[in-house]
Amino acid sequence: MYDIIIVGAGPAGLTSALYAGRANKKVLVLEAKNYGGQIINASKVENYPGIESISGFDYATNLYNQVKKLGVEIKYETVLRIEEDRTVITDKDKYQARAVIIATGAANRKLNIEREQDFMGKGVSYCATCDGHFYKNKIVAVNGGGNTALQEAIYLSDIADKVYLIHRRDEFRGEEAYVSELKGKDNVEFIFNSNVVELNGDDKLESIVIKDNGGNTKELKVDGLFIAIGQAPSNEAFSNVVDINDYGYIEAIDDVRTKTDCIYVAGDTRVKELRQLTTAVGDGSIAATVAMKEMRKDN
Ligand code: NAP
Fold first, then answer.
1. Dihedral Cα 278, 282, 288, 293, nearest 10 deg
2. Where in the sequence of the chain do the CATH 3.50.50.60 domains occur?
3. Which of 5, 69, 140, 259 could be bridged to 97 by S-S, CB 3.0 to 4.6 A?
C-alpha cells in the first residue's frame, strides 16, 4: 500500500512527489511517457520566480533528480482506471494508495486537417526544441498565438532561414516580451487572421495553404510546420471518480479536491484560470499537503 500515488510526472505531479517524499511518505509516480510534461519542450523558461532563465528540459530534469533523491518510485505505466477505493489500474499492474493525485497535464492539440498525421515527422512537428535542428537554413512556419508558438518562432529563427508565424487572430495571446523579440528578427514574418487549411507534398511536407478570415487562400512553400495551438487534456479514464467539464478538464473543489474523497487533482489538467509552470507547481504542493493532512485525519 502506498501513501500517495501520483498520476503524471510533469511539474505538478513531481512537485506533489517532492512534498510527499520530503514528508517521508511512500510515494509512487505513474507516468505514461516521459518525465517533465509539456515544459520539457520549452526552449527557455524566463517567468519562473527566482530563475532568470532555464531550458524546460533542464528545469524538468532538475526537478526529476530532486524527487528521485528522496526515494520516490517512478514507474512508466499508463493508468487505465482509478477506483473509488484508490485502486489504480495500469496497463501493467494494479496498485493501492491512501490518496491519489491526478496530474496528467494536457497533450498537444492537433489542427485536425487532412494529412496532418501522414506528415508527422516528415515536416509536421509539435516541438521546435525536439525537431528544430532538422530545419537548418530551411523555411518553416509556426502556427499559433500563445507563448509556445512565440517561443518556438524565436527558437526557429536562429536555425531556419525564414519563419512564418501564422495566427488566427490579429493579436497574440502570448507575452509582449516574446512578441517584441520576434519583431526585431529580420527572418520572421507575421501572418495574422489566417488558418492553415491544407498540407501538400509527396513523401514529405512541401507547402501549406493558408486561408484568411476573408476566405482568401495562399500557398506558402515550407519545409516544416510547427503546430503550437495549445493543449487538450485527456481525462475520460477517470470519469468515474471526477467531474469533467465540456473541454475535458477536471472540475476542482477548493483548487485540488475532486468529488471523490482522497482523490485530488493538480496542474494543467484541472479547470483553472492560468496554466503556467508557476501554477502547476503551486497546485502540486497544495495537493500533496492537503492529501497528507486529510490522511492524518483518517488515522
Ligand atoms: P495557449 O496559450 O492555449 O495558446 C494556444 C494558441 O493557439 C492561441 O493563440 C489560440 O488562438 C491558438 N489556437 C487554438 N486552437 C487553434 C486552432 N484550432 N487553430 C489555430 N489556432 C488555434 O497554448 P500555449 O501557447 O501552448 O501555452 C499553454 C500555457 O503554457 C499558457 O498558459 C502559456 O503561457 C504557458 N507557457 C509558458 C511558457 C513559459 O515561458 N513559461 C512557455 C510555453 C507555454 P486564440 O489566441 O485565438 O485563442
1. 170
2. 2-107+231-298, 124-227
3. 5
The predicted pLDDT at position 298 comes to 63
Task: Specify the ligand 1 atom closest to the Cα of 45.
Answer: 40
Written as nine digits, the cell of 85 is 477505493
- Which class is domain 124-227? alpha beta
- Of the listed 58, 85, 93, 130, which one is catalytic? 130
Can you list the residues of the chain whose pLDDT is less than 70?
A: 298-299
pLDDT of residue 129: 80
pLDDT for 65 equals 98
pLDDT tens by residue, 211-261: 999 999 999 999 999 999 988 898 999 999 999 999 899 999 999 999 999
CB 123 within 8 A of CB 208: no
**Residue 275: per-residue pLDDT:** 86
Q: Per residue, what are the HEC states of 151-214?
A: HHHHHHHCCCCEEEEECCCCCCCCCHHHHHHHHCCCCEEEECCEEEEEEECCCCCCEEEEEECC
Q: Exposure string (b/e) for 232-243, b if CB count within 10 Å is 16 or more?
A: ebebebbeebbb
User: Which pLDDT does position 299 carry in this prediction?
Assistant: 57
Range 2-107+231-298 has CATH code 3.30.70.360: no
Q: Is 262 a catalytic residue?
A: no
DSSP 87-129: EEEESS-EEEEEEEEE----EEPP---TTTTTTBTTTEES-HH
Report the DSSP beta bridge partners of residue 211.
195, 217
Residue nearest (by alpha carbon) to ligand 1 atom 32: 275
Q: Are 194 and 210 in contact (CB under 8 A)?
A: yes
127 is catalytic: yes
